[in-house]
Amino acid sequence: MSDSVVSDSVVIVGAGPVGLMLAHELALAGVRAVVIERSPEIDDRTVSGLIHARSVELLEQRGLMEPLRREHGEPLVWDRLHFASFWLDMSELAETDHSVVLLQNHIQRVLSDHAAARGVRILRRHELIGLSQDEEGVTARVRSPLGEEEIRCRYLVGCDGEDSAVRELAGFAVTRSGPSWYGLLADVGSYAGPVGAGSFHEGGMFGQFGDASTMFRLMTIEIGVEAPPPDRPVTLDEVRASIERITGERPTVEEPLWLRRHGNVTILADHYRNGRVFLAGDAAHFQFHPAGHAVTIGLQDAVNLGWKLAADVQDRAPAGLLDTYEAERRPYGRRACVYGRAQMALLDTADGPSALREVFGELLDHEVVNRHLVRAATDARHPAGGGDGLLGRRVPLVRLGTAGGEVPVADTLHAARGVLLDLSGGAEPPDVTGWKDRVDVVAAEPAPEIPASAVLVRPDGHIAWAGETAAAAGGLRPALAAWFGEPAE
Ligand SMILES: Cc1cc2nc3c(=O)[nH]c(=O)nc-3n(C[C@H](O)[C@H](O)[C@H](O)COP(=O)(O)OP(=O)(O)OC[C@H]3O[C@@H](n4cnc5c(N)ncnc54)[C@H](O)[C@@H]3O)c2cc1C
Question: Entry's InterPro entries (predicted)?
C-alpha cells in the first residue's frame, strides 16, 4: 500500500462537474476527499455550455457563483431550453426557470480550485483500474505515471461518466437502450454548405450552429446507417460524407477543432448504491446530451449525496440516511433517461415519428405542456412531498430581513449545514435544543415567498419540515431527528 492510504475518507473517481461538486460538498463538511482523474487537466475544448437555473442555485448556495461572475462576467440568461428539435419557451417562467450560458470547463475550474483550497486532493493522471469492498471499506486500485497503487477509503463514488469503470468494476446492473442511430458532432473553423439549426431529411437530421466569428458546430443524425468501428478516428471526410448523405449537398468543411461520433444510448443504473460504492452524474444516468439537463441533474446528485455521506463518515447519520440518496435521486435520473428517449423518438425521420413531431409541436403551444417539460426532470422534491405544500421543495433564495440587516438565504447555506429559518418575527422561536451543533438558526421577518412561520432546510437546500400551521410545530423535533440524528445530551 502507498502513502495514499486514507482510512476515514471518500474516494471520488472522476473530476467532471459532478465529482468536483461532490468533493467540494464533502470538504465543506470537513470530510477528507480524494479525487482520482485520469486526464492530465481540465479539457478546455468544453462541449457543454447551457445549464438550467437549478444548477445556478446550487452554485449560488455554496458561494461559487460569485467567483464565476468575477472571472467570466455575468452569464448570459436565456429563456429557451431545447427539447428534441423544439425550443421550450420559458419567458413566462423566467424568474424561476431559465437557461444560463456557463461553460462546463469554467464551472469545473472554480469547483476544482475551491475544493483544493479546502483540502481535497485531486490526483490527475490517475486511473481507476480495479476495486474491491468489504465491511469496513473500499480498496481502489489506481494506475498513475509512477506505477500502480492502492487507496483505501470508507466509501467510493463513481462520478466517472458515461463509460463508468466504477459501474463496471463494482458490478452495478444497468438498463440500457440504443443505439439506433449514427451521428457526428464536429466543431470546425471553416464551413460552407447547408445551413439551419435543424433540418429533417429522409435519411436523417442535420444541424449547423455558430459562425465564423466563433466556430461552426455541425451535428448529424442518420437512421439505418452503421457507425464505423469506435477505434477508427473521425475524419473531416466522414463529416462531409454524412452531411451529403443527409442533405444531398456536398459541404466544404475545414479546420477541425473537435470531432466525435455520438449515438443515442441511454444508460440507467438499476441501483445507485452497492454496499460502500455509489454512482452519481452520467455514471448513474446517461441520456441523449441535447436533452439539456445532464449537468443540472448530476450536480443535484452530488449535492444530495454529499451531506449524507459526510454525516455517515462522521458517525452522526440517522439510520437509513444514506439509502435516501438512491430513493430520492434515481426517480429523477430515470425521468431524464425517459425524456431523453422521448426526444430521440421525436428526432426519428420515419413516417410515424414525423407525424408525432407535428402533433407534439402543436401541444407545445399550450403553456401547461411547455411548463411540464421544462421542469419534469430538474424540479426535484426531496423528500417527496405532496400537494402544494413547502415540504421537499427547494427553499427560495430570497433575501431575508434580520436584526443585523438583509441576509440572502443562499448565504445561510454556504457552510452546507442544516438551517432553521425562524420566520415568526420573534413571535414563536422554534426549539432546536440538542441539534445546535448541526443546525444553524436564522431569525428573520416573515417572508411572503416562504409562507410558514419556520422552515427546516437540509444542507442541500430542500425543505425537510415547514411550520405552515400551528399543528405542524410538533413535527419539528421528529424532523430534526430524522434528518440530523438524535439530539446531543
Ligand atoms: C456535445 C455535448 C454537449 C453537451 N451539452 C450540454 C449542455 O449544454 N448542458 C448540459 O447540462 N449537459 C450537456 N452535455 C452533457 C454534459 O457534458 C455531461 O452530462 C457532464 O459532463 C457529466 O458530468 P459528470 O461529472 O457526470 O461526468 P464527466 O464530465 O464525463 O466526467 C467524468 C470524468 O471521469 C474521468 N474518468 C473516467 N473514467 C475514469 C477512470 N477509470 N479513472 C479516473 N478517471 C476516470 C473522465 O476523464 C472525466 O473527467 C453535453 C454533452 C456533450 C457530449
Answer: FAD-bd, FAD/NAD-bd_sf, RIFMO-like
